[in-house]
Predict the structure of Cell wall hydrolase/autolysin.
Amino acid sequence: MEMLSIIFSHILYSSLISSIIIVLLLIVKKCLPSYLSGRVYHVMWLLVLLRLMVPFEIESPYSLTSILPEIYPLFNYSHEYMSNQADDYFRTGNLNSNEFQELDGEYYDKEKTRDYSLWNLGLLSIVWLTGVTSIALFASIMLIKFKRRSKEFERDYNPQITELMQQCCVRLGLKKDIPLYLDSYFRGPCIAGIFSPSIYLPKDICSQIHHHQLEHVLLHELAHYKRKDLIYNSCAAMAAILHWFNPLVWLAIREMRYDREIATDAYVMETLGESAVIPYGNTLLKLAGIFSNRSTPSILAGFNETNKQMERRITMIKMFRKGSYKLSALAILSFIIIGALAFTIANGSTLKGDGNSMFNENIKDMMVVIDPGHGGNDWGGTYPFDTSDPESIEIKEKDFNLEISLLLSDLLKKSGIKVVMTRQDDRTVELEKRVEFANSCKAALLVSIHNDMHPDSAINGTKTQYYYSGNEAGYGITGEKAAQIIQSNLVEKLGTIDLGISNARFKILEQVNMPAVLTQVAYITNKSDREKLMTREFRVKTAQAIYDGIIEVLNEMDATDK
């Protein structure tokens, strides 16, 4: 179930990014229907097809994910929170089994309901798999029927047609022997078979068209094979199955088929020369009259299309000039730009567990307690500030604290650091319970994540607090030193105003045995800080900065022990 959700989240994300590109291409086609050639559009559709099929991205500062900061994280991290957080929050180091069970029962319910959105993702993944299975089964049945029916097709051995077929193969540089079949099953000329291709024609076509028109038909079908259109057809079918829920994908595949025919026309005319443009166009018109409104099955690459698309093909044929099949520098540049947008992910959306921190393997034996401030009925700071109307509250500090803490936990665990959290969801945990839990874990460091507020909305910046209780002896570092290190990393990486470190007599700092710090990342009552906090990129950077600071603190502890 969990693996299915992970797969579906990648499919969903790929479909979303592809949809943006599809809409952009459709707008370009609508505004500039004849400005770019069919081949250019077809290659662009192939990039979309590749985006739909490939599940990975390359990190870049320029990406479509940069305009989706609040959507991408669900796809990228949801499965990790589902699978890892519930099991790993209580890695309690030296706690014995009785102590662990007591803490586990006191603070968390093992049967707790998962986050609603993630539960929905799991449910949707089942619906998606059902659709994929159903459509794949239907497509397989249709393919099997076609294979069985094809055994009854009559192969054409007419010497004149065989000679014409050989001449067409020579013109296109094809050495493969491609058989030709005639049967009333087909409503128009088409070609099928990736590894063993065959051309199929309606049984009475030879009596309805002239010899040179038959040459055009054969060249067109052979050009599909030469251009690898049959492979693209199969990939398009797979994409349609995987993304069956997205109507834009079906629309893109239809448009890709239309542009494929125009590109194939251009390829044939490039082979025949400009003198054949008018005769080739007449062949299209002739076939349009014979096979009016007869579509070709999607598993085949055919010569004929709908009347509307036939009109566009005729228009593009009129505009054809020798050499126009070749891709221009502008077209190649367009492909590079689309590819860069489609296959990259904004570097502000990813987490780097090893970052630039100097990582020491010895610190993996140490444990870190992460304390997301507030939670449940305790909202912490709010915006608007000091309001008596709960309905008017737009922002609650507890939500930012939890998300940053989850991201930080994920980073530390990816590096192999033992991590426990005082809360992993939106629940109320009393300060006494947090302190008791942290001390029971015998951790090396506690980091409490907070954001601040103030009646004066002009106050903004970052500060880190500590309390020297004398309990830190033997840890190799004081809370003050740990605060200096983490504060330095936060200010450097976030670019916020440095409000420094200060001694603060908070319970979570005063009553724990290990070095402890409390970060106040930003002021939610300040417009500038608040706008930063509301961006995914800033919250990810915050987690990364605290992570780097923690690694530095743990390294110093290890060095002091030696």
About this structure: The first helix runs from residue 2 to 31.
